[in-house]
Structures are given as C-alpha cells and as structure tokens.
Specification:
The chain is α+β, with helices and mostly antiparallel strands. Helices cover 55% and strands 12% of the residues. It has a 4-stranded mixed sheet, with no helix packed on it. It has a 4-stranded antiparallel sheet with strand order 6-7-3-8, with helices on both faces. The chain has a two-stranded antiparallel ribbon with strand order 9-10. A hairpin with a 2-residue loop joins β6 and β7 (193-198). α9 (255-271) packs antiparallel against α10 (277-294) and α9 (255-271) packs parallel to α11. The radius of gyration is 26 Å and the shape is globular.
C-alpha cells in the first residue's frame, strides 16, 4: 500500500483497526528488510513497516515522547526535539578544552539488532501503566521480518526504520546516561554513539572496563571491542568531526568524512562524463551544500580547500575528455583566452586527462571564477558564509 492509498484505506477500515487496538488484539504486519550501505563500509539492515503500521507507531511516538523526554539526560543529543549533532560535537570540544584529553570511544555492536525486549519493556513499564500500550509496543518489537518473500520471527532487536525505534533506543540507553552521570563523567551520546572524556589513559581504561560490564550485564548489549578504544580525541572521530591537539581546542572535519565525500562526488562525476558541465554542477550542488551545512562548525579550512581544489581539477578533466580530439581542444583553449601557439602545443601534449587538469594551461583557461560563474558550490565560501550569520 502506498502513502497515497492510506487515507481511503483508513476511511473504510479504521473502526475495526481501532477496536482491535483497544482490545489489545492488534497484530502488526512483518517489516520489510532493506539493506543500505554504511558510511564506514558494509551494510545496515533496516526494517520498514507497512504504511498503516508507520501511522500507528507515529501516534504511539507522539503520546509516549512527552512522557519519556523529561527523563532523558542533558548529555543525550540524538533523535530528540531541539537537540542536534552540532550541539553534541560542541559539547565534545568543550570537554577536551577543559582538560579531558582522553576519550573512551564505545562502539555497540549491531545495537538495533541486539536490543533485549524484556529489559526494554521493563523500562517502559516504569512510565506507562496501560497494559494495552505495553502489549502493542511489544507486538511491534516482535513483528516478523520479511526478507526475500520469507517471514522470520524476531526475538530481539528494535527494527531500525520505524518511527518508534529511535525513542525506544533512547529509553534503553538513558540507563547508561544516568549511570555515567552518577559516576560524575563527562560524556556525549548521540543514539548509540557514546564518547566519555577523562583526564588520563589509566582512568579511561578503568571506565572502559566498568562501562562494558554495565552494558553487557545490565542492558544485555554487546560492545564491539575491535572498534572501541581509549585514545586521544584528535585520533578518533565523533559524528564525522574530530578536534585539534592544541590547548585551545578547535573542531575539524575528520579525514574519513572527507574521503566519504570524495567517494560520493566521484560517483556523480563518473555519471556526468557524457553530460553538460552545467548539469553536473546542478547535480553536485545539493550534496555540497548539505555537506557544508553539516560541517560548518569546523575551524580548519584546509580540508575544505583541498576538496574544492580536487573537485575543480576533476571538472577540468571532464571537459578535457569531452573535447576529445587535439583540434577540438586547441579551439576550446583559444576560445578561453589562450594564445594559438600555447593552445596548439597544450592540445597535442599526449598526456592524460588527470595530468592536463592540473597543468597550467587548463588552470589559466579554466580558473576558479569560471566554475563559480557556472554555479559550482564552494565548500570554503559556503562554510564562511554560514559561520558569519548572526
């Protein structure tokens, strides 16, 4: 059923659906498993509910959220109204600048697939007294998973993809938040990404051991020991950001985030080789603007300048390929202002597109302002503009 079909379906069937919900007899449909690539490699399995179940889950979310939100920690930033990743990384920078220059970086292994239903329902029962609501939430947790046309039962986990799962994940991990606050730790948690900031490596190792025991024994979760570490903050990343090692700590874009952006841009550029440059720039614009908006807190512009220069060089290479023949290249270079002698010499140099895209003749013929006129979004200029807003 499509979203457009839902209104007519509810007009016909809602009284019966509501009666089953009120009687505690409603059975959700199986969720559809969809796999999407993860930024760090591998795949993430989502569980997509039917449109009717998404509506009911959203209604549950709107009722439960006001009950649960006041109990959540001030150091929790993910999937919460009025809170954002930018607030989390700003808090992270503050802790490091205060002198907490070691981080306990805890990675939960397949968090959404490992949620223990009994532990989660016990926590929810502290806030919700209506057994029908509890029964309905458990029914959603236990809804089967359809993969390749076959439905398999679910005995643990909260399907990532439904409106209710982020709220339930925060409910479960709030137990970790309160335990860390009880111990007096500085920490930032965004969904299942949790970083704890301490003053020494020895303290970090003690915290790692004790928090791992708490997560595995009390919350029945599993810590990925290969990805978790006690390290310097500037050697780790949090929500795509890292920090500098200076006493006056500054935020910077992590190298992994820069490389993921390059990979995304390469895919767009590869598809745009046979199209006009203006079309390619139009396709790139939303990605570049979105990336710049997310990383606008960076105080280091070096990574932005590197990507801007790399992208312009790739675009020069695309034009060089499109011109194909030496005669065509010579005419194009002359139209762009090069002398006839230099244009003919450059057009017949026999070098490949990447070499030519970094050579002086194309830099002179296709300067930065040429791409700016065509509408290329500059990461540096966009971030500077965003940072200068009041």
């Amino acid at each position: 059923m499509t979203v457009g079909d839902l209104k007519g379906h509810l007009q016909r069937h809602w009284p019966a659906i509501r009666e089953r919900i009120n009687a505690g007899q409603y059975q959700p449909s199986a969720v559809r498993r969809v796999r999407i690539p993860k930024p760090q490699g591998g795949e993430r399995a989502l569980g997509i509910p039917t449109v009717q179940d998404r509506l009911i889950q959203q209604a549950l979310h709107q009722v439960l959220s006001p009950l649960l939100e006041p109990t959540f920690s001030a150091s929790s930033y993910g999937f919460r109204p009025g809170r954002s990743a930018h607030q989390a990384v700003s808090a992270m920078r503050g802790y490091v600048e205060e002198g907490h220059r070691w981080v306990v970086d805890i990675d939960l292994e397949a968090f959404f697939d490992r949620v223990n239903h009994d532990v989660l329902m016990g926590l929810l029962a502290r806030h919700v007294g209506d057994p029908r609501v509890l029964k309905l939430v458990r029914a959603y947790l236990e809804a089967g998973v359809m993969d390749g046309g076959l439905v398999s039962p679910r005995r643990e986990g909260a399907p990532q993809g439904g409106p209710l799962s982020p709220l339930l994940s925060n409910l479960l991990l709030t137990e970790l938040d309160w335990e860390l606050e009880r111990r007096g730790h500085r920490f930032c948690r965004y969904a299942d990404d949790c970083n704890i900031y301490v003053r020494s490596k020895q303290a970090g190792e003690r915290v790692m051991a004790s928090v791992t025991r708490f997560l595995e024994e009390r919350l029945k979760l599993r810590v990925n020991r290969k990805k978790s570490a006690v390290d310097r903050p500037w050697r780790r990343r949090f929500l795509g950001y890292s920090v500098t090692w200076h006493r006056r700590t500054r935020l910077r874009v992590s190298p992994e985030s820069v490389e993921r952006l390059r990979s995304t841009l390469r895919d767009v550029l590869r598809r745009g080789r046979g199209r006009s440059l203006s079309h390619t720039l139009h396709t790139l614009a939303p990605t570049l603007r979105g990336w710049a908006a997310y990383y606008q807190l960076t105080a280091s512009k070096r990574a932005l300048e590197t990507v801007d220069g790399w992208l312009r060089r790739k675009l020069r290479g695309i034009l060089w390929r499109q011109w194909k023949r030496p005669a065509t290249r010579a005419r194009a270079l002359m139209r762009l202002g090069l002398s006839e002698a230099r244009a003919c010499h450059s057009a017949s140099n026999g070098r490949g597109p990447w070499w030519n895209s970094g050579a002086s003749h194309l830099k002179v013929a296709l300067p930065n302002r040429y791409f700016a006129r065509l509408g290329l979004v500059s990461l540096v200029d966009t971030v500077v503009r965003l940072q200068s807003r009041p």
